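Thread: quick sanity check before group meeting

JM: Hey all, I'm pulling together slides for Thursday and realized we never actually wrote out the predicted structure for the chain we discussed last week. Dropping the sequence here so it's in one place. If anyone has concerns about the input, flag it before I start.
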Amino acid sequence: MLSSTNNILGLSVFSVRRKYFKVYHYIVRAEGSYIYLENGQAIFDASGGAAVSCIGHTNAKVAKRMLDVLNNGLAYKSSAIFLMRDEDYTAKLLLDGMDNKMSALYFTGSGSEAVEAMSKTVLEYHYILDPKTKRSKFISRDTSYHGATTGALALSQMGARKEPFIR
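JM (edit): ok, ran it. Output follows.
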């Protein structure tokens, strides 16, 4: 049983966590807007995760499509090399609800990746408009958090999360 491998602090001995001395709870299942912990506690998950995948849990349509893709043998594809019709369909569906305020989407695998892609896109956009541009700085709110990667963390203003990495 995996739970017997936890040390006295309740930390997993199998993987590193973001905070070494925080006790993390194990999820045993999720359904709709709720996640359920090993101790039986039900938690209302208002954002479907880290506020970047708001589709709920066990969404039958999403689960079926994911299974269809996996059953066709595709567990991963590089967005730098290949396209999928599902991406076009999803992008069109999302853009149709934007009242022509956006014309294209860029899919990423996480919020941190999205923040880094955005920062590169913005810098490139301004460089293309003016190769001598001085626009190279970003403004973020006090106590903002934009992700776990060093690039996303650099744009964040949450001192406690940045401090261990500033030298």
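AS: nice. The chain has five helices and three strands. The CA atoms of residues 69 and 75 lie 8 Å apart.
JM: adding both to the slides.
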